[in-house]
Specification:
Helices cover 44% and strands 6% of the residues. With 502 residues, the chain is mostly helical. The chain has 2 domains: 8-277, Chloroperoxidase-like (Chloroperoxidase), CATH 1.10.489.10; 290-501, Chloroperoxidase (Orthogonal Bundle). The strands form 6 sheets. A two-stranded parallel ribbon has the order 1-2. Residues 7-17 and 233-274 have low confidence and may be disordered. Pfam families: Peroxidase_2 (PF01328).
Length: 502
Amino acid sequence: MISFVRFITVLFAVVAVNPIASLETGYFYRPSADEMSGIAGTNATYRRSPCPALNALANHGYLPRGGINVTEDVLHDVLMSVYSLDETSTQILLALVPSMFSLDYLGTHNLVEHDASLVHTDAYFGEDPASVNETMVDDLLGRSIDGKTVGVTEVAAARANRLANCIANNPECTFSASTLKIAYIEASIFILGFGGNVNESVGVDVARAFMSEERIPEEYVVSSTVISFATNPTTHSRIHFDSLTPTTDMVSFANCITAATFAVSAFITSPVEGLDVNLLPEGTYFKPSGRLVSGVVGNTAAFHRSPCPAVNALANHGYLPRNGQNITKAVLGPAVMAVYNLDEASTATLLALVPDTFSLDYLATHNVIEHDASLIHDDEYFGGDPAKVDNKLASDLLERGEASGKLGVTELAAARKARLANSIATNPNVTFGTTQQTLAYTEASILLLGFGAKTNESVSLDVARSFLVDEKIPNGWARASSAITVAEVRATVANIIAATTA
């Protein structure tokens, strides 16, 4: 038995290393302003967002307390269990975020974060988007008519005041139709979700706990019935209507409610189509997800993507059209050269594979560019979306580099060999002729040279994971210092083939 003194010493040492590691789910711990940030791409210990509902979930441990690597599955379950959102409403919100993200992602301006927020300062003024403006909180809650609750009337008045203030003081104020929809959805969740879906109101004390402290208060009672955006869009609409200044030209109350309900219902049907992603500056990361994106050839989804993570990353960052449609060679060529530093000859070789104008799903045409035995996509035979990353395949690839922390020629060769063997064993229609081999080994070469920035024919696991799984250009990544030539690509191809057959 160890001594009591030693036990206490060890115990405090553990707590000092990770003060929140032992906290149970539900226990409230809010990191200090010095420890956390909501700035998109921050490397702070704790990531937070402009959304008090999500921050509260992280502060209570229902989401990862660090606010990092939040998965769609985890978020799905806690939105339904803690706030009693129904399945449809939950899916609407999940469509706004990638399958895995950190909370600071929501701080990206004009993505989910927006001007004229009820409790956050506009991005123009340079404040951390996760920082709560207590003056705004006091203004919102101080509008309570009965001194006990706030509801549609009070929130509508606060909305109107915030927009007027934004227009008057922010020379870059943006409050487009898509921003309006998000703002009123947020206001509705504030009333229905925090208020437990009771009489379209929320108690002042409960509201302050959520909005100011980002804490789920003890007196909070989850709604006894599930909250559905689809069946109650008029809550959002009444906030919108009540925030308008009546004029002699205004049509009837009923018609206003109908029009506002239609606008909100349109957002409920297609939330990300309602977002004007073109407002996002070039370089800002936004990856569409769910039913809003597809790589199936000829699809009608809002966002088109391909089986090529390098090209998808260009679209996700706005170097190509964010919807992945009507891309011209005149746009693709300069983007590939600028971002990945391929030389003119290498770029011309890639451009020869596509029409003058195309959408990203074209690249999924089987045996044109998409091919069997892909490193991170399932074979076409199995009927999946060709742009969807197979997480099991991606994990298998990345695990091969765990010992060294990187992928190199040896790891890529082993992965290529294993994938082909698996396809031959499981896919009766497998095709891996000269064309497919050329594409597969060229892709592997560009993975090492392009993503790895020509660093000894290798790429770090973190960079590889960001490009291959998240289809994201990682923060701090730098392209190769010299242009990648056709000769270099061919040399690395030869090295991978040699290692495969060794």
